[in-house]
Specification:
Order of helices and strands: EEEHEEEEEEEHHEHEHEHEHEHEHEHE
Radius of gyration: 20 Å
Number of strands: 18
Structural class: alpha/beta
């Protein structure tokens, strides 16, 4: 094993606001693992909406706009006091980065030293060990420092060994987006032959959901732009429709068993109207806007289920690792950038012109 330095390169989020709040430094102390932690040397870390949302304070209840509206400069109306996704006041400076692939280079006193040298994926949602509070959790890169650095400290239980021929950038494209997609599909109980509508299907979570739904032998209708139609079809969608498509005219009512939504916004009501009686509508984002029209009669008279999905079910990440190792899913890396060019990478991410993930290399 190589000698672990005392300082490292990292990007520090210094507060809520625009790209100027991202500070690339080369003098950040390397974290020291606690008794139940491991220290990983980060090979790659991907960009996610949650990074942008935290920087811009979009999670604040005072913000009602789409995420991209404040992506460059932040939201002037945001209240820092409630801008963390848990509702707690965020702590700065913070090393963000929910996605990470790396190698274990040090272990805590309670961790088996045989784990040294393991290649791992970080499960980004650190659940409470107390079974009485299963949805109490913190997020890697949000309530604790994450992967936008040379090294990261991770609870050993959330550092999952992986054996794969994929490179670090490809593996780093999986944890956050793919676990979010798998979690929504698992919580909604999508089954073979069911009809699923996937919103934002060209993004990181959406493109993962297309592949994972196809893996379940579901019938996939994906929402994406005309420019990205062929790319989304290649992922396994049976049909691709535009975001402004008239769902009622095309499908009538009571058509979809499941909807997977990372978008929200004005199209929410039409998507809900297209659900079968007893359908399941899973939500893990609202990039087009968090405030949506909802007629409660549609919800209760049709026995629909609305499923909020953030904290991962216990089986989700181990299953994802198994799918990757078996070659049942394939990564979709749209672009890579050096960590020092994080602002440029986030600008490209916000442009939404690419299909798949944007990955940073320390």
């Amino acid at each position: 094993m190589s000698v672990i330095p005392t300082v490292m390169r990292a990007v520090l989020l210094t507060g809520n606001g625009g790209f100027e709040k991202l500070a690339y430094r080369d003098d950040v102390p390397v974290p020291v693992p606690g008794p139940h932690d491991v220290l990983i040397r980060v090979g790659a870390a991907a960009v996610n909406n949650t990074d942008i949302n935290t920087r811009t304070a979009w999670y604040s209840k005072s913000v009602t706009a789409a995420t991209a509206a404040g992506g460059a400069d932040g939201f002037a109306e945001a209240e820092t006091a409630d801008s963390g996704w848990t509702g707690a006041v965020p702590q700065f400076p913070r090393i963000q980065g929910a996605d990470a692939c790396g190698t274990i280079v040090a272990v805590g006193s309670a961790v088996n030293p045989d784990r040294l040298g393991e290649r791992v994926l970080v499960e980004p949602v650190f659940r409470s060990p107390d079974a009485r509070t299963p949805y109490a959790a913190i997020y890697f890169g949000s309530e604790c420092d994450g992967g936008f650095a040379d090294y990261a400290r991770v609870p050993a239980v959330h550092a999952h060994r992986i054996v794969s021929a994929l490179d670090d950038a490809e593996l780093a494209s999986f944890p956050c987006a793919w676990s979010a997609a798998e979690n929504m599909l698992a919580r909604a109980g999508l089954g073979m032959g069911e009809r699923v509508l996937i919103c934002g299907a060209s993004g990181g979570v959406g493109s993962a959901a297309v592949q994972l739904a196809r893996r379940r032998n579901a019938l996939v209708t994906a929402i994406a732009s005309a420019e990205k139609r062929n790319a989304v079809l290649a992922l396994g969608a049976d049909a691709v429709i535009a975001g402004d498509a008239d769902l009622a005219a095309r499908f009538g009512g009571e058509y979809f068993d499941v909807c997977i939504d990372m978008v929200g916004g004005d199209g929410f009501a039409a998507r809900l109207d297209a659900m079968k009686r007893g359908g399941r509508y899973a939500v893990a984002g609202a990039i087009a806007g968090p405030i949506v029209p909802l007629d409660l009669r549609t919800l209760y008279l049709n026995d629909l289920r609305l499923l909020g999905c953030t904290v991962l079910e216990p089986q989700v990440f181990p299953n994802l690792v198994r799918y990757i190792e078996a070659g049942e899913v394939r990564p979709l890396v749209a672009a890579t950038f050096p960590l020092a060019r994080i602002a440029e990478a986030q600008r490209v991410f916000l442009g939404k012109q690419l299909v798949g993930k944007i990955v940073l290399i320390p």
